[in-house]
């Protein structure tokens, strides 16, 4: 079993134990994902590009960013699970598409 599937199972169990499946529609999950992505963005909002680099972040900033990344990942994994999408498969497919679109030899 992949790590992503293990996480999907853990998140599914967490949601089931709280009777949240009724709320975990693709629409609701995608909206929650966008909200969490916004919260991640807010952590960087007023930083310069240099200030946003890992070595420039303090421990509190980095901890907050890590938690927001986790929230984004949780909703993304849950959405994929609800829709029956294999994240590893579609990422590999998209990389193949991007390789043909953004071929360095043609730049």
What does this molecule look like?
By secondary structure, this protein is mainly alpha-helical. It has one domain: Helix Hairpins. It is built from 4 helices and no strands. The chain is globular and about 45 Å long. The relative contact order is 0.13.
Care to give the gist of this entry?
This protein is mainly alpha-helical and 107 residues long. It has four helices and no strands. It has one domain: Helix Hairpins (Orthogonal Bundle).
Q: Determine the structural class based on helices, strands and strand pairing.
A: mainly alpha
Number of extended strands: 0
- CATH homologous superfamily identity: MazG-like
End-to-end span in angstroms? 39 Å
Total domain units: 1
Overall geometry:
globular
Helix content: 55-70%
* The top level CATH class name: Mainly Alpha
* Poorly predicted runs: none
Rg from C-alpha positions? Answer: 17 Å
CATH architecture annotation:
Orthogonal Bundle
Per the CATH scheme, the topology name is Helix Hairpins
SSE string, helices as H and strands as E: HHHH
Q: What do the pLDDT scores average to?
A: 96
